[in-house]
Every structure is written in C-alpha cells, then in structure tokens.
Design goal:
The protein is of the alpha/beta class and 251 residues long. 28% of the residues lie in helices and 21% in strands. It has six helices and 13 strands. It has helices at residues 3-13, 35-53, 69-81, 142-145, 197-209, 222-231; strands at 18-24, 29-34, 60-64, 84-86, 103-107, 119-122, 140-141, 164-167, 173-175, 189-192, 213-218, 236-237, 245-246. Strands 7-6-5-3-4-8-9 form a seven-stranded mixed beta sheet. Strands 2-1-11-10-12-13 form a six-stranded mixed beta sheet. Strand 3 (60-64), helix 3 and strand 4 form a beta-alpha-beta unit. Helix 1 runs antiparallel to helix 2 (35-53), helix 1 packs across helix 3 and helix 2 (35-53) crosses helix 3 (69-81).
Length: 251
C-alpha cells in the first residue's frame, strides 16, 4: 500500500476508531484522534501545502519535528500532495550533498527566516491558536493559519510509485511504492516512546497498513507507563530491548 492511500483506507474501515493517542507526560496533555479527525487535520495541512506553497509531486518538505501527533498529520499531508518527506540530520551534523527542501516544517523555537526555503512553525499544544514564541518575519504560524483551510483535500496530481516518498537523515530514499513496511501485526494497538522521527513514521506506516492504531508516549513517566498500556488496550510495544514484543495483560 502507498502512504497516500493509508488514511482513506482507515476512514473506510472504521472512521471513529482511535488511530493515534498521544501522551505528553511533560505537559500532562493527552489527545486522541480517530481516523476521521486525523483526516481533517491532514486535509487542512495538505491544502495549505498545495495552495500556499505549490507543494506536489517532485517537491521536498523537511519535517524537522519530534514524534508527535502533529508530526504524523504533517507527514501524511505531504504524502497526500505527492511530495517527499525529508528527515533532517541530527543537530550539529552536516550532511554532505544533503537534499535541499522546498519547504521546512519545524517548531517555533527552531524557526528561522532568510534566504532559504519558506518555513511553517508548528505549536504542539492541542488548543494553541497562535505560536507562544515570537516568530521571525516571513515564518507562517500554523496554529493561527491552519483552521482556515478546508477539511476535504483533492490533490492536483499524484506521485508515481517510483517517486521519492521519504528521504532519511542519512540520505536513503524510499519510494511511494515501497516506503510502507509490510510487517505490521493486523489490528495491533501499538505503543511507542521513540524519540526518533524516522522510526515513529515507519511504525505509523506499518501499523496503519495493518489496520492498527498507535499510542505515543512523550517523555514518559515510568510510574505511569504500565497502567497506561493496560488502560489503552495496548497489544504490542515497539520499545522493549530486542524489538517489538507482545504486551502481557498482567503488566
């Protein structure tokens, strides 16, 4: 399955089932999105990308965000337009021959303006209506702008199966026809606390291709985690040493 086909398939399968539940133990915030609601966010973001920045097949969007529910809908939005997601190298690491993006999506704290690609600043708080930090001139405030875009999106064009879909931090390119892993556990409720955006997106792609759902813990409190896995009905965890493992119901 292609990444731009995942969300329509989830909505068709069950539009009301939770598909991403995000806990931020640093802020105390919990948010849960069904396939339908996630689709609304994706449509708005994709419309912004296409209408305001002419993003489409052949474009590259740098996604300089940590694992988060907002990161997920921005990645899915890029793929709905037919463009490629670029994962920047780690801070302080210079990548020789690095891909130059057409647009950068990042946090307000990291947002800069200048002669480079245009920038969209993302505020992670669920109810944010504007950036809590001052933004440089020319940087678009996602929290203030996104609500004005429609909940339905129609791409002008579609990427071919061989078109780049994901450019990793090391420069490795995965195409639209191959980027979705075919190793997901059918229907799994999968937990992750990864801090790696590339790993997070790969988990999301594999999980959604298998009609599953995600629980993401950000800065998890170890004292809360075991009870959370039970309360959320988690059946698979991506984080134990040795790789994914089934979660015991006696946790």
């Amino acid at each position: 399955m292609r990444p731009d086909a995942l969300l329509p398939a989830l909505v068709h399968a069950d539009s009301t089932r939770p598909r991403i539940t995000c806990y931020d133990d640093a802020s105390g915030e919990r948010i849960e999105l069904s396939a339908r609601v996630l689709g609304n966010w994706v449509a708005k973001a994709a419309s912004l990308l296409q209408d305001e920045y002419d993003i489409g097949p052949g474009s590259v969007v740098a996604l300089d965000l940590p694992p988060h529910w907002r990161t997920l809908y921005w990645a899915l939005a890029v793929w709905r337009t037919g463009a490629a997601v670029l994962l920047p190298p780690p801070a302080g690491v210079a990548a020789a021959g690095a891909t130059v993006p057409d647009l950068v999506v990042t946090t307000g704290e990291r947002a800069t303006s200048g002669d480079g690609a245009p920038v969209i600043a993302v505020t992670r708080a669920a109810l944010a209506r504007r950036s809590p930090v001052p933004l440089p001139a020319g940087v678009l405030d996602e929290a203030a702008a996104l609500a004005s875009f429609p909940d339905v999106f129609e791409p002008y064009d579609e990427a071919g199966d061989d078109a780049p879909a994901l450019v990793g931090a090391g420069g490795k390119v995965a195409a639209y026809g191959t980027v979705v892993p075919d190793d997901g556990t059918p229907g799994a409720r999968r937990h992750t606390a990864t801090t790696d955006t590339g790993e997070f997106l790969e988990l999301a792609l594999a999980t959604y291709a298998a009609d599953g759902s995600l629980v993401l813990s950000i800065a998890p409190d170890p004292d809360r985690l075991a009870a959370r896995l039970i309360a959320e009905g988690v059946t698979l965890s991506a984080d134990p040493p040795g790789g994914p493992a089934e979660v015991s119901r006696s946790v």
